[in-house]
Amino acid sequence: MRRVPPAPRSGTPVVALGGGHGLSVTLKALRQVTRQLTAIVGVADDGGSSGRLRAELDVIPPGDLRMALAALCGEDAWGRTWSRVMQHRFTGNGEIAGHATGNLLIAALWQETGDVVEGLDWVAALLGANGRVLPVSSQPLNIVADVKGVDPTHPDQVTTIHGQVELEQSPGQVVSLAVEPADPDACPQAVDAIHGAEVVVMGPGSWYTSVLPHLLVPEIRSALASARARRVLVLNLATPKEQTAGLSSDTYLSTWAQLFSDVHLDVVLADPQCVTDPTALADVCRQLGIELVFQDLTNRTISDRSPEHDQDLLAGALSELVARGTI
Questions:
Q1: pLDDT, tens only, 192-248
Q2: Considering the chain, what is the average pLDDT of its residues?
Q3: Mind spelling out the 3-state secondary structure of 100-149?
């Protein structure tokens, strides 16, 4: 039975970090839970419309920011219409083909205002967005990863991969992750939002391109490490074919502990039917002092695609965690 969405809450500041479709589903859930919601979005996309605008206009890639704004649109006629318009992608064979309307709108407001955050706030106001959208950094980032086994004939050979798109499409095992520039400045408003939050939600999403890169921005990592908020990681329902192929849920957490030992996770939220070895996951969580919450989170109406989070079920699970507040 579908969980009844929780009533909207006020006075509970919540921050969600990520990018792409994973962050979108989290925001659609959290907008049912709190009226004080801030999304902190990655800026490393180098493909498609975002990559073209990034290169041509020397701006941060707008695509994931657009998706976050569209996810925060309301369920009334205004919200539904603007959500579709923001996501509309032009067809044809001309120079505008492939661009998303929202990407162009965001880029236009950046040029008009001369300020990344002010431009995003104007877009949010136009859409009637149920929350604020901020970039993790005001400068575009490039993901750099050392990957072992890209060439199956040389499984132990390490190859350096540059760029989010190339990493997303690369086989092999990621053995190190970095961003360029090496010490990027964080968006000050994003840092303030983390410090003021009672709950911080990370995931679901592509592990090495949407979830972890935020922690490679030093001020963001420091803010997360010292935050008074309850830090929640929502695990993926399925493992992508590339990047993390063969990794289990417990391995995700072991990797986190090795790379970011100063950023303690308080809660891991997972669907037990989508965890290969629940016992191993529970053991790792116990060793790391993380509370493990198993809850049904999957949209069971979808049978011909990879499993997807049900936003109402996710909202119910997150509502219980938000109600607890800080630790």
A1: 999 999 999 999 998 899 999 999 999 999 999 999 999 999 999 876 554 555 567
A2: 90
A3: EHHHHHHHHHHHHHCCHHHHHHHHHHHHCCCCEEEECCCCCCEEEEEEEC
Residue 189 phi, psi (nearest 5)? -65, -30
Place of tokens 């509370």: 291
Residue written as token pair 């920011």: 65
CB atoms within 10 A of CB 289: 9
Which candidate, 162, 212, 164, places its Cα nearest to that of 46?
Answer: 164
CB of 186 closer than 8 Å to CB of 137: yes
| 291-305 per-position pLDDT tens digit | 999 999 988 776 566
The C-alpha atoms of residue 220 and residue 226 are separated, in whole angstroms, by 10
Q: What is the 3-state secondary structure (H, E, C) of 180-212?
A: ECCCCCCCHHHHHHHHHCCEEEECCCCHHHHHH
